[in-house]
Design brief:
With 185 residues, this protein is α+β, with helices and mostly antiparallel strands. 31% of the residues lie in helices and 15% in strands. The strands form two sheets. A three-stranded mixed β-sheet has the order 1-3-2, with helices on one face. α2 (70-83) packs parallel to α4 (142-156). The radius of gyration is 20 Å and the shape is globular.
Length: 185
């Protein structure tokens, strides 16, 4: 894939929103990089790596610890599975794609519920419980993320990491990606 650089003002509202959000959450720096129709249309950097004095400015080669970005990767992998026909619809019940001995507690839960954190499932000491009826409320729970990765793997035969690498990182010639593990002292 060849990506050209054609900076324009079409996405200025996105840049403005990210700048405003970065100020609201009091972060030290941020960036916006948008590819649209195989063109880099927006590329902006501001701030520093930390609020400590004399630190490097945010720039093209800055690496960010983005934590919850994995949900975007998982969403992409699910979209890939739908696009390629491995999953019929995100409105399918998850029991269609989970092992035959799936727990009855999963009944009524769709892939969309998992993607939007409206599944109502909660893991307590490794046991899954129903917190609320699917689609009625929202709650961020890792059990949904785990089930999505399992569904992607079982339907496509590939992990989320393999799908993202093959369809995003490699075509864009990303040379360095990975998870950073932050440990407290």
């Amino acid at each position: 894939m060849i990506i050209n650089k054609k900076i324009n003002t079409q996405f200025n509202s996105v840049v403005s929103n990210v700048r405003k959000t970065s100020e609201l959450v009091d972060c030290s720096g941020a960036s916006v990089f948008i590819i649209h129709n195989d063109n880099i249309v927006t590329e902006e950097y501001w701030g520093k790596h930390s609020k400590a004095p004399d630190l490097r400015e945010i720039q093209e080669d800055t690496q960010f610890h983005v934590a919850s970005v994995r949900k975007s990767y998982i969403g992409f992998a699910v979209a890939y599975a739908v696009y390629e026909g491995y999953i019929d619809s995100i409105d399918d019940l998850i029991v269609k794609y989970l092992p035959a001995n799936s727990m009855p507690i999963f009944n009524g839960t769709t892939i969309r519920h998992l993607l939007t954190h409206t599944h109502g499932l909660k893991s307590i000491n490794g046991e899954i419980h129903r917190e609320f009826t699917p689609g009625i409320n929202w709650s961020y729970r890792g059990v949904g993320i785990d089930m999505l990765t399992q569904i992607v793997k079982s339907t496509t035969g590939k992990s989320v990491a393999e799908i993202v690498a093959d369809n995003v990182f490699k075509p864009l010639n990303f040379t360095e990606t990975g998870w950073l593990v932050w440990r407290s002292k």
